[in-house]
Specification:
Blueprint: H1 27-34, H2 38-42, E1 80-85, E2 91-97, E3 101-107, H3 121-127, E4 142-150, E5 153-163, E6 168-173, E7 178-184, E8 189-196, E9 211-218, E10 235-241, E11 247-253, E12 260-262, E13 268-273, H4 282-285, E14 290-297, H5 298-306, E15 320-322, E16 336-342, E17 348-350, E18 356-360, E19 366-371, H6 372-379, E20 390-395, E21 400-405, E22 410-415, E23 420-425, H7 426-433, E24 442-447, E25 452-457, E26 469-474, E27 490-496, E28 503-510, E29 517-521, E30 547-551, E31 554-562, E32 565-566, E33 570-574, E34 578-585, E35 594-598, E36 603-607, E37 612-618, E38 623-628, E39 641-647
Parallel strand pairs: 11-15, 31-34, 33-39
Antiparallel strand pairs: 1-2, 1-29, 2-3, 4-5, 5-6, 6-7, 8-9, 9-10, 10-11, 12-13, 13-14, 14-16, 17-18, 18-19, 19-20, 21-22, 22-23, 23-24, 25-26, 26-27, 27-28, 30-31, 31-32, 34-37, 35-36, 38-39
Bound molecules: sulfanyl-(tricuprio-$l^{4}-sulfanyl)copper, dinuclear copper ion and calcium ion.
Length: 648
Amino acid sequence: MPYKTTPLSPSASATEAAPSRRRFLNTAALAGLAGVSLAACSDKPESAPAAKASAPGASSQADEGGAGTVHLKPGELDTYYGLWSGGHTGDMRVLGLPSGRELTRIPCFVPDALVGWGITNESKAVMGTRPDGSLKYTVADTHHTHASYKDGDYDGRYAWINDKINSRIARIRLDYFVCDKITELPNVQGFHGIFPDKRDPVDPAINYTTRVFCGAEFGIPLPGTGLEDDKAYRSMFSCVDAETMEVRWQVLIDGNCDLAATSYDGKLAATNQYNVENGARYEDMMSAERDACLFFNIARIEAAVKAGKFKTIGSSKVPVVDGTREANKDPRTALTAYVSVPKNPHGVNASPDQKYFICAGKLSPTCTVIELAKVLDWFDGKLEKLDAAIVAEVEVGLGPLHTAFDGRGNAYTTLFLDSQLVKWNVEAAIKFHAGDKNAKYVVDRLDLQYQPGHVNASQSETVKADGKWLAVGCKFSKDRFLPVGPLHAENEQLIDISGEKMVLKADHPVRGEPHDFIIFKRELVRPKQVYALDDFPNAVKDAKESGVTRNGRKVTVKITSQAPAFSLREFKVKKGDEVTLILTNLDKIEDLTHGFAIPKYNINFIVNPLETKSVTFIADQPGVFWAYCTHFCHALHLEMRSRMIVEA
Ligand code: K7E
Ligand code: CUA
Ligand code: CA
């Protein structure tokens, strides 16, 4: 056990332009998306209304915004944390904002040589192993990260991040900034969107996150379906328990899931669908003019599970309820509602005023605004046509992907093909949609460098959206950084959104692939800097407990570290022994971390103050091996060693 996984109490740490006239894209979008080229970055459609909105990089800009400077002086602390998806590196990046300084990376799905993630027994238990003890997976593709809520704001307990390749969800404890659980979802492939709920739909006393929803993008054959019978492939929407990290239930759906979002009242979760066609080839996936935004009635789904109205699939014991269109025609019993939205939408985001879900068009130059109250009315049998829940469907530009909010009624949507950020006013868009053609909903446009994907703003996905800083993950940097071979850095841009006009403040190069992130006030987390010995059942609590004990071929080596020495200056084992080495760091001063590496044995890990870790290996190479401290800890750091003698 890495540390106790007692539930973190939710109350413990919490403190406080005219629209374009372009019509739906067809072949043009296809060319732009499929052949994502640098030409697409620079070929600005001539109708893009505000390509001149700013001169990116102009030095005068740096001083214009009202949110403050990004150039913090040495020793100055950032005011926000950012939790960033690491992309292919399978970890979570932690940034300070507005400086954009990277503070740490939290390993989750992929081994990490600094902390020994994937090396120690504790991390292997979290990551999952094969019967021979090797890691089950060593690659990952993280996209989305979100944190736990209380009363509509982050409560500093947990964050979650997905691995699309192997359909895993990892939980990060925000007290120690470590991954403590990973769950692999059954019955799905291409787990992509992820979002925690914000309160319980039935019990108002549960005003914090207890579920995390996971959307699966790829349809796969169910038992009894032919492998190539792609029209019968299905995907699922999964609910994971925020505490146990077990999969509570899944919903079998028509079409697919992409991104996910949840309502502030806890009643609904949503996912956008770009493949209502159930296509197996991309041409098929874009054959229909409209796709859907799918809503899940959480209370009804859980009632159905409770009433036993589910089946299970294959070897999985997870209850699967039927969320297909056919089974959910009657609104008063429906578990799901399929709201029709334009062709191949991408992100879906809940507005901080708690009223709307916004679905970005991707292949359509529009954003669709869906009113939560109206979807609930439909479920109650009070709204005849579900389509009437759409209160706006307005043009914003080419390739809209993701939307952030400033808490002042404005939405900020990335336009992948236009390489722009568009700021638009949601209520004005609703008026425009209702027929008031004088309602000017586009407020501002800003050129980005280049082809942006995710966007988020400070506190944007909470009721405390503060409208100060906004970051964008651009998929291309083109010529903005020194070249480093064929693979260019990608570009994350920081924008001041405190005023009417958006102001670009900084570029940050990033190794691929930037996806989702959240930005929140620093006082919302209270990281602990020293562990408690008792957090670890196997802790070596006193240097005097150190030593080697033998049980047949199994040998246990207990050792402690206290600068500048390990408790055992040497230890002996025999060739062929299965050695379990347990190391407790008895230093209790913050940041007094030691490392422990054994040459030729592929072992390296660190122990933080009062932390315990263990490794198990076969002593298959006889000889002398200088185990040494890898983390500079003391003037005698280089002398901090222990000698492992493996007798032949
Ligand atoms: Cu748009 Cu995987 Cu969130 Cu990336 S997805 S951009
Ligand atoms: Cu201990 Cu370096
Ligand atoms: Ca489609």
